[in-house]
From TrEMBL:
Keywords: Calcium. It comes from the Eukaryota. It holds the Pfam family EF-hand_5. This is Calexcitin-2. Residues 70-92, 99-134 form the EF-hand domain. One of its GO terms (molecular function) is calcium ion binding. It comes from Papilio xuthus (Asian swallowtail butterfly).
């Protein structure tokens, strides 16, 4: 059973990063809207290769998410279906589905704007600010997530990722991986 704390984290992710149109469920169009937002952040135009690559990556993530979570096969993922899917993941996070691994990698690459193999506070907070979070909250979240270090590497990010989806301890640094300073 999902704890109230973990449910709050999962719903933060659902509402801020997936249900882009605020319809109450996640649909394919939410991923199109997310791609547009991300490409705007990076300055990529609709005909650019990076724009196409971003959209393709997000549509593949949607297809995997839909297969894993859309229990009633209505083309939408509700908040309840979302939480249930991540609860299944939390039981065995080291064997995540391909789309979950792709999403982890996508987020790291999105945040690593400098392509140096690590995320710094500026890169991190710029992404979350583009999704409507307060910059100062994202900077505070990065400080906790990074344990005060100036950068987070890919290896560290993967460990923090698992912690976000599995931890019930509010003090674990992985809880801050999606830019929120509090839940």
């Amino acid at each position: 059973m999902v704890s109230e704390f973990r449910k709050q984290k999962l719903l933060h992710l659902f509402n801020i990063f997936f249900d882009i149109d605020a319809s109450g469920s996640i649909e394919r169009n939410d991923f199109v809207l997310a791609a547009e937002n991300i490409c705007k952040l990076r300055g990529w135009k609709s005909g650019d290769d990076k724009y196409k690559e971003t959209l393709e990556s997000l549509i593949k993530i949607w297809e995997g998410l839909q297969t894993a979570a859309d229990a009633d096969k209505d083309g939408k993922v509700t908040a309840d279906e979302w939480v249930a899917m991540w609860e299944t993941y939390a039981r065995n996070p080291n064997s995540g589905a391909d789309w979950q691994l792709a999403y982890c990698k996508f987020m790291f690459q999105l945040e690593d704007a400098g392509c140096d193999g690590a995320i710094d506070s500026e890169e991190f907070s710029a992404v979350y600010e583009s999704f409507g979070l307060l910059r100062e909250d994202s900077v505070a979240a990065f400080d906790v997530m990074s344990k005060g270090k100036p950068k987070v590497t890919w290896q560290e990010f993967q460990e923090l990722w698992i912690q976000y989806f599995t931890s019930d301890n509010p003090n674990d640094p992985g809880n801050f991986i999606f830019g929120a300073a509090t839940f």
